[in-house]
Amino acid sequence: MSLPVVITIDGPSGSGKGTVAGLLASHLQWHLLDSGALYRVLALAADKHAIALDDEDALEHLAVCLDVQFVLDSENNSQRILLESVDVTDSIRNETVGAHASQVAALPAVRTGLLRRQQNFRQAPGLIADGRDMGTVVFTDAPLKVFLTAGAEERARRRYLQLKDKGETVTLTSLLEEIRARDERDTNRSIAPLKPADDAIILDSTTMTIEQVLDRILSEVAVRSLAG
Ligand code: DC
After folding, report:
1. What confidence score (pLDDT) does residue 77 get?
2. Nearest to 16 by CA among 212, 226, 225
3. Domain residue limits at 84
4. Based on the structure, what is the number of domains in the chain?
């Protein structure tokens, strides 16, 4: 029996892939894997259990045993994320957790520890998988792989507006520095670096709206007859 269909959306932070992945999943009524959230939850759990971010053995064990749940909040069609039954949906989104997630994600044993958990999200009728290595490592047989990118300045600007909207005080310069540091670490790590799969469609969203990106991907879905 063939496995349920999966569409992978990889790219750097701020490229809009999280938003596009969420919209696609709800449009197609498919499952959603936000793999970055898994790395973020792991970083938060390490902090909670006082595990150092370079203790690879302890982090691998934590990755395999991680008590995390993704729960659909049907009221506003969004996902709530629970770590050990505590809602961490908002607390995993800050810049410190993001930086720590990028650190733990560079450890090979951590990636192996989370691999099966990510592949288990592949359920009928289909899956939208959002991350850095969805097309290159986790779902190499995906029939549609998208690599969504955007210039670093534009990604910093989007993040700035998002955080300002939430009432957080940040500067554009510091966000740009953080984005560049994270890109550097995610792109140059030895395991599962951020890069497009050979068979990925590369979309540069710098001057595109979310709707344009979504339309472009949906046209690829139609060409490949991926949705029932
Ligand atoms: O997409 P995000 O910003 O929530 O991801 C947080 C960090 O997790 C990111 O800096 C790199 C890492 N990550 C990864 O290495 N592989 C993935 N598939 C997803 C995220």
Report:
1. 74
2. 212
3. 5-217
4. 1
